[in-house]
Amino acid sequence: MQLIPCPWCGPREEAEFHYGGQAHVAYPEDPRALTDQEWARFVFFRDNPCGPFAERWSHSAGCRRWFNAVRDTRTYELLSVYRVGEPMPEVSERDEVVS
Amino acid sequence: MRADTSVRTSPLAAWTDRLADLAPALTAAERPFLTQLTVRASDPVAVARMGEALGVAFPADPCTATRGGGPFGAVEVLWLGPDEYLVVAEPDRRVPVEDALRAALRPARGAVVDTSAQRTTIALSGPHARDVLAHGCAIDLHPSAAPAGTCVQTLVARAGAVLRVDDAESGAFTLLVRSSFAEYLAAWLSDACVEYRAALS
Ligand SMILES: [Zn+2]
């Protein structure tokens, strides 16, 4: 089983975590101005890269806090974890953070 | 006939004998009705003031707990999250501890909530306590990795639990488990003990 490093609790079993989809998807600044098509894009459309991908995770069985992680979608390796509000760090594809 | 509703029954009241039977492989006993207050506060000054009010400083590091004594007797403070703590005191101390925490928290923003009925407490020790826990818990409980004072929220046999290390060398632990999961966890502990009881008898 993969270990995921919670920014507060350290490495824990993957079973303690809950996946929350793509990170950095900003809520519309003026929601009332959005067309149905733009709403659909905000709610349903997500990137699907082959490589590093910024995601949200919740340490649901531990400290229950949300954080962000950059994961390589080809290898499942976590390249970086960082707290909500912090900018997405530069990652090189070989920077695996889990020992 | 009237039901007598004034008698408190702990979640593991029916398990007292079965838990006691696990010795000597595992000494397991419920410590029911402890006062438990969930504190949410991020202001470091208010957190320090609450520690002074209880006579025990709140834990500064994630996944640790502190204990001490003061005006409310023995008190433990468990780190649950970056701005969340669980204050545990002897039974029936809820009102004075809650009042003291609220007074110390002001004027910072935060919350002090009575969650005494949410979890019950199981004290574990014995020569195989670590082995038994390892059957269902991925936390490394070796004294070098989890010294006394370590306190984690994690999964024990897939049930959410707070696990505190009381004595790393002898292997004494405290498990705080949701009341609705307590009987399940007691049954799992009994089952996980079987092979060690056979070896010791
Ligand atoms: Zn965590």
UniProtKB/TrEMBL annotation, chain A:
Could you give a GO molecular-function term held by this entry?
A: sarcosine oxidase activity
From the record, give the transmembrane residue ranges: none
Q: Which domain of life is it from?
A: Bacteria
Query: Which GO annotations describe the biological process of this protein?
Result: tetrahydrofolate metabolic process
Concerning InterPro entries, the annotation shows: SoxD, SoxD_sf
Its protein name is Heterotetrameric sarcosine oxidase delta subunit
TrEMBL record, chain B:
Identify the EC number(s): 1.5.3.1
Enzyme's top EC category:
oxidoreductase
Entry's Gene Ontology molecular function annotations: sarcosine oxidase activity
Q: Which UniProt keywords apply?
A: Oxidoreductase
Specify one Pfam family: SoxG
Signal peptide location in the record? Answer: none
The name of this protein is: Sarcosine oxidase subunit gamma
Question: Which organism's genome codes for this protein?
Answer: Nocardiopsis aegyptia
Highest classification ranks of the organism: Bacteria, Bacillati, Actinomycetota, Actinomycetes, Streptosporangiales
